[in-house]
Design a protein that fits this description.
Elements (H helix, E strand, L loop, with lengths): L1 E4 L3 H11 L5 E4 L11 H16 L3 E10 L10 H7 L2 H9 L5 E11 L20 H11 L11 E11 L14 E3 L2 E2 L5 H7 L1 H15 L1
Helix pairs in contact: 1-7, 6-7
The structure holds inosine 5'-triphosphate (ITT) and sodium ion.
Length: about 220
């Protein structure tokens, strides 16, 4: 059993869709103090430690964000705040003024169960789900497989998906999905399985699931 610390139903639905067969995922609606940082991995790791200390059971935290290239990565780590304050229509309006509307979603899953992962062998033969392996590797090069010294160890899994901002289309998904287009389709026009096959969260979940099964 695995606790997914989140207040976001959309994230939970996608994690269950993905991990359903491998692990029972239970929501832990525990409000961790989300530290303000430029690095979503640091935010996720901090929350995972805090949640693990609170429940004393294996936990995952997922921190994610939308990064708009022409806006120097805004809203990035402030994506939830920008969604609440501006709303996705106005984030789209900001991007609409730019000629380059490329953007990406990034996801970081932080796992903590109080144990040290140093002795755990890395999985070999990674099965790739979704395309764009190069982009995936670019994204993982930064923060993959961190083990923090001197604090509760946290294992980090990262996922990335490139796309483009567009005027809102589609009814599915959550958050910024209606304005994020990947290969001609917005995330809000995909069902959960289709989105997981290509999304930032799906990629991070794929890495996590592969590692977690070995455990
Ligand atoms: P928890 O922290 O409780 O898990 P949250 O919604 O606050 O939930 P984050 O702090 O990670 O999550 O903020 C992520 C923001 O990015 C939030 O506004 C989401 O709606 C948005 N977001 C993340 N993944 C997304 C996705 O797959 N599709 C659309 N929007 C997404
Ligand atoms: Na949050």
């Amino acid at each position: 059993m695995l606790r997914f610390v989140t207040t976001n139903e959309g994230k939970l639905r996608e994690a269950r869709e993905y991990l359903g067969a491998d692990a029972e995922v239970r929501q832990l609606d525990f409000d961790t103090t989300e530290i303000q940082a430029d690095d979503i991995a640091a935010v996720a790791a901090h929350s995972a430690r805090q949640a693990y200390r609170h429940v004393d059971e294996p936990v995952i935290v997922e921190d994610s964000g939308l990064f708009v290239d022409a806006l120097d990565g805004f809203p990035g780590p402030y994506s939830a705040y920008a969604e609440d304050t501006l709303g996705i229509e106005r984030v789209w309006k900001l991007a609409e003024m730019e000629s380059d509307r490329s953007a990406s979603f990034r996801s970081v899953i932080a796992y903590c169960d109080g144990e040290d992962f140093a002795a755990t062998p890395e999985p070999v033969n990674r099965e790739r789900r979704g395309q764009d392996q190069a982009a995936d590797e670019r994204a993982t090069a930064t923060t993959d497989d961190q083990v923090q010294e001197g604090d509760l160890p946290v294992k980090i899994f990262e996922g990335y998906v490139p796309g483009e901002l567009v005027a809102p289309r589609g009814e599915g998904g959550f958050g910024y999905d209606p304005i994020f287009e990947h290969d001609g389709t917005t995330f809000a026009e995909m069902d959960a399985a289709e989105k997981n096959a290509v999304s930032h969260r799906g990629r991070a979940l794929a890495k996590f699931a592969e590692w977690f099964q070995e455990r």
